[in-house]
Amino acid sequence: MNAPAKSSPDPARPRSFRIGAHALPAARPEGGLYIVATPIGHLGDVTLRALETLAAADVIACEDTRITRRLLDRYGIETPLVVYHDHNAEHTRPRLLARLAEGAVVAQVSDAGTPLVSDPGFKLVEAAISAGHRVVPLPGASASLAALVAAGLPTDRFFFEGFLPPKSGARRTRIAELKTLPSTLVVYESGPRLPESLADLASGLGPRPAAVCRELTKTFEEVRRAPLDVLAAHYAENGPPRGEIVLVIGPPVPEEASAADLDAALRTALASLSVKDAAAAVATATGLPRRAVYARALALQAGDG
């Protein structure tokens, strides 16, 4: 089999990017599909590696040229754009695969954040891998991770649900399926649907702690933390919010342990751990509030229990 022809770079196009008044060169990498994370709002959140790759690429596949062009213009990047989204993917994907077969550097971006998370990029990556092309991830901004670390809820185990079904019946069915997952839930939702979704979540999951994370990294960034039923009541009264929304929901609380069970678990943990570490371990195991468990651990250590 003959080796694929190498894609010829355009000598007239500058392969550089600009940081302030400084122009930086962008060396052309080896051919392949580069999955490039872009900012979810604040254009300063892009990585230097992402800028260099976007400037050096032969073509950038994007969802909306107007949105991607804002980023490129900010950093003086002149790489050609090709629209690639759900509605034209079947037609455009073969063209991009043909470019890859020629040895081109194809960068794939979404409108915001990390590609392939709730966007059409998966099939292009799947096809590129099947054809034997290099697929290179460039990590960066992600709305789901930004919301998770801002919510103040457990991060050791989480489940990314993406968008819940838009119709209430199907949404309630899906919520019932998620109810027993022993992890924090991360959900995307649109502003107009948020009040109804919160009402269904509060009904199906109970008053779990949650956070509505809105317009992250943007001018009107907001993180509203409260139990699900309180959040549902707030948005029912005040109406749908504007902007991009990520909803983070705490994990289910196991059935409350009896006082005797709690004391037994704490005494076992205190035999080998400090009060702080013993309380943390038992709180994690039982799902009980950490402050309450810590207070009981102090009492046991002092001989009050």
Strands, helices and their partners?
Blueprint: E1 16-19, E2 22-25, E3 32-36, H1 48-56, E4 59-62, H2 65-74, E5 81-83, H3 89-101, E6 105-108, H4 122-130, E7 135-138, H5 143-151, E8 158-163, H6 168-178, E9 184-189, H7 194-205, E10 209-214, E11 222-227, H8 228-238, E12 245-249, H9 259-270, H10 275-286, H11 290-301
Parallel strand pairs: 3-6, 3-7, 4-5, 4-6, 8-9
Antiparallel strand pairs: 1-2, 9-12, 10-11, 10-12
Helix pairs in contact: 6-7, 7-8, 9-10, 9-11, 10-11
List keywords for this structure.
305 residues; alpha/beta; Cobalt-precorrin-4 Transmethylase, domain 1; Methyltransferase, Cobalt-precorrin-4 Transmethylase, Domain 2; five-stranded parallel sheet; five-stranded mixed sheet; 11 helices; 39% helix; 19% strand; elongated
